[in-house]
Amino acid sequence: MFGRLHAWSSRHTKLSEALRVAPLAGLSLFGAWPYSTGEPVGTGTPLDLTGYLAVSTAVLAPLPWQRRWPLAAFTGVALVSFGQWLLGIDPVAANLAVLMALWSVAYSHPFWWALAAALVAELGVFLVLVRWGQVSFSMFFSGSIFVVTAWLAGLYAGTRRRYLESLEERAERAERERDQQARMAATAERTRIARELHDVVAHNVSVIVVQADGAGYAIDSDPEQARLAVRNISRTGREALAEMRRLVGVLREAEADTTDYTPQPGLAQLEELVRGAGVPARLRVSGVPSELPEGQQLAVYRIVQEALTNALKHGGPGVQALVELLYGGTELTVRVTDDGRGAAAPHSPGGHGLVGMRERVGMYGGAVSAEPRPGGGFEVLARLPVPARRAA
Q1: Helices (DSSP H) in the chain: which residue ranges?
Q2: When you count CB atoms within 10 A of the terminal residue's CB, does the N or C end of the chain come out lower?
Q3: Residue 290: in which H helix or E strand, if any?
Q4: Interacting residues of 288 by C-beta distance below 8 A, sequence separation 6+
Q5: Please, is 237 exposed, middle or buried when counting C-beta atoms within 10 Å of its C-beta (0-12, 13-18, 19+)?
Q6: What is the C-alpha to C-alpha distance for residues 302 and 298, in angstroms, rounded to an integer?
Q7: Sign of the C-alpha dihedral, residues 150, 155, 158, 163?
Q8: More confidently predicted of 344 and 220
């Protein structure tokens, strides 16, 4: 409710300022009745109704600017009140504007400005008591209670406002940093994927060259062998072209020369990966295995590797894992589950494992999810489309 009220007042500045002054203006009008009788009011300079309204208007006039220029508004109210004291005019209801302006200064200005305004208000209390001839500690203390209350209320409100603004700024900065880190992680992962797929594409092109040379030598002496080599060239060329199309979106022009010439792992190395995962794990393969491109095999290998690493880091003592590959005709399902702590595992900020898995699976038109299981433990589930087989 307070948030909506603040937003409304920000949109309707003039109207909100008028509403702030309205209660004090109404109180001043209510106090005008004794001055309309023609009888003297108080012991100071006598005022008629017109004089009372003129003094009240002069005191209230700076208040509409207290939100935009609080120090100037307080100065104006204080000067008018001091002039009123010099003329010997008794305080009126409108003089409570000093407390309102003091609150605005304490709310929006640094401490020393707020303290100076409070001292000016205290001086005003003292001058009023001098005019009345009632200067005593008890009377000064009673008048100071209102000044100190308005001052402390403004300081508290201003401190809270600045605290909330710092929280909002910190949240916005954290959100920007998080988005930036996510973009950097995605960029780094794309670069790493491009470097890995480079070896796959280079291998396919090398196979094409070797097969083409063999077909050229055998085309006269062994036509059947040449025909087989041409078929292999066609199949390998299609695979290389598919890899290069996927590579276009992630390839970077200015990449440092840090190429790793180690052969990239695939499905054949999954059994070794599961055995050396660091946690007790089993590999289960269901369905009829399909021949996958080397880049897609690499994606499956990295997904399983990341899932087992997470189980080792967050699963807790005694965790066990199960790696399942389910071939379903046109789709390969990769499921890695563990019986560890699941949702109870401590959160570690800054990890980008899931970002990397999504990047890899997204390159092949698949989907991946990673979440705690209802009964405990954690599950990583990835689905990748399987390329259709081509007739020889």
Answers
A1: 2-11, 13-30, 49-60, 70-86, 97-108, 111-132, 137-221, 223-248, 270-275, 294-314, 353-363
A2: N
A3: none
A4: 327
A5: middle
A6: 6
A7: negative
A8: 220
| Residue 324 reports pLDDT greater than 90 | yes
CB 114 within 8 A of CB 74: no
Return d(Cα 325, Cα 383) in angstroms, integer: 10
Rounded-to-integer distance, Cα 52 and Cα 139, Å: 26
Non-local CB neighbours of 260 within 8 Å, separated by 6+ positions: 195, 199
- The C-alpha torsion from 117 through 123 and 128 to 132, rounded to 10°, is 160
DSSP 311-349: HHHHS-TT--EEEEEEE-SSEEEEEEEE-S-GGGSPP-T
Cα separation of 131 and 90, whole Å?
A: 9
Which residues have C-beta within 8 Å of that of residue 259, sequence separation ≥ 6? 195, 198
Q: How many CB atoms lie within 10 A of CB 25?
A: 18
Contact 351, 343 (CB under 8 A): no
Q: Tokens 């909506």 correspond to what residue?
A: 4
pLDDT tens, residue by residue, 51-66: 778 888 888 878 877 7
Enter the tokens of residue 325: 């590959």
Q: What is the DSSP letter of 257?
A: S
321-327 sheet: strands from edge to edge: 281-286, 321-327, 331-338, 378-385, 367-372
Give yes or no for residue 253 having a pLDDT over 50: no
User: Which residues partner with 367 through β-bridges?
Assistant: 383
Element holding 383 (H helix, E strand): strand 378-385
Instruction: Report yes or no: 340 and 314 within 8 Å, Cβ to Cβ.
Output: yes
